[in-house]
Amino acid sequence: MIGRQFVRPMLRVLVLHGPNLNLLGNREESVYGTTTLAEIDASLSKLGSELEVELEIRQSNHEGELVTWIQEARGNYHGIIINPAAYTHTSIAVRDALSAVEIPAIEVHLSNIHRREEFRRHSYVSGVTLGQISGFGPMGYLLALRGLHEHLSSRGSKPVSGAGLSHGAETRSH
Ligand code: DQA
Questions:
Q1: Whole-model pTM?
Q2: Ligand 1 pocket: which of 31, 110, 115 to mutate (most atoms <8 Å of CB)?
């Protein structure tokens, strides 16, 4: 019997924040609260370290830039967490990019978009994501990361370029 140690690739997740989320902290505080984007990113990074998930976090006010980043994620990331902000309700381009890359993605909204104005109730991206987390404030990002981690771990993920390797605790004999 020879013990064999399995090496599993470290999961890599791309986090994308859409337009106006750079203003969090002093943007419509009654809707979005007072937590800043930097604070959200710091809590995500902390959880990423605990779960051994490598995170890349970016924010853009430009639709095309978000589309390009999603396209570039193919082969580089195992999963995507995205708050497309206003582009949720307008962007077929962001939806098509998510659909094209076929990377499991979770849609996050700080506010509950279903309790707000009618125009926010429709999301173009929901149809191509694993699921949507809406209304939990900054905690929604952490729920998304935990959910994505569970999802990716349970189905086993192939290494992607630039991915670090982490050694699984598991040792099997046969
Ligand atoms: C948002 C909800 C969107 O309707 C809005 O345009 C945003 C933020 C949220 O996180 O609650 O900018 O995505």
A1: 0.89
A2: 110
